[in-house]
Design a protein that fits this description.
The structure is a single chain. A hairpin with a 2-residue loop joins strand 2 (59-62) and strand 3 (65-75). The protein is 31% helix and 28% strand. It is extended. It contains 4 helices and 8 strands; from the N terminus they run ααββββββββαα. It has an 8-stranded mixed sheet with strand order 7-1-4-3-2-6-5-8, with no helix packed on it.
Length: 164
């Protein structure tokens, strides 16, 4: 057995290195995607009429800076809105009357929740609900409405001009 171990020690070390690297990668990915929320995070709830593009682990930002992640989301059976639970950094003290909007970095950019601070002197605390929210905009629906409106209003103009 000893000669076999000595012959394959290099392969065993490479295998151990691959296993350690895979473990580190899983740990890193878990933390980067929101699986590992900050210790002592403030959990607040927001209700959105449409949460297209938002998933567990999506960023929550204030003025473009990440201050938290989406911890959970579910459909509220009474209002049929999406109940989104946000895990916010406890070091960031946002006013209790802050608002939330689902937005994106551009046409092909990532979708995130943008928090807009209010003017209240009382800060959001664990278990609070953000009342003022704006859901995701449906870009394809807006393009469809534009096409339908412009197509209906420009038709028939050439027939009128041809009449004597």
């Amino acid at each position: 057995m000893r000669p076999l171990l000595r012959e394959n020690i290099g392969e065993a070390l490479v295998g151990l290195f691959v296993i350690l690297f895979a473990g580190w990668f899983v740990w890193f990915a878990y933390g980067a995607t929101g699986g590992g929320a900050k210790a002592g995070a403030i959990h607040v709830t927001a209700f959105f009429p449409n949460s297209t593009g938002i998933n567990v682990g999506s960023d929550v930002r204030v003025a473009g800076m990440k201050v938290g992640t989406v911890a959970a989301q579910a459909l509220d059976p009474q209002s049929y809105q999406v109940k989104v639970k946000l895990a916010l950094d406890p070091a960031v003290k946002l006013p209790a009357d802050s608002s939330a909007a689902i937005t994106s970095e551009g046409f092909l950019g990532a979708t995130f929740i943008s928090l807009i601070p209010g003017g209240d002197t009382v800060a959001l605390k664990d278990g609070d609900t953000i009342a003022d929210t704006q859901g995701a905009m449906d870009l394809m629906g807006m393009v469809g409405q534009f096409i339908n409106k412009s197509g209906g209003s420009s038709g028939g103009g050439s027939d009128e001009a041809a009449k004597p």
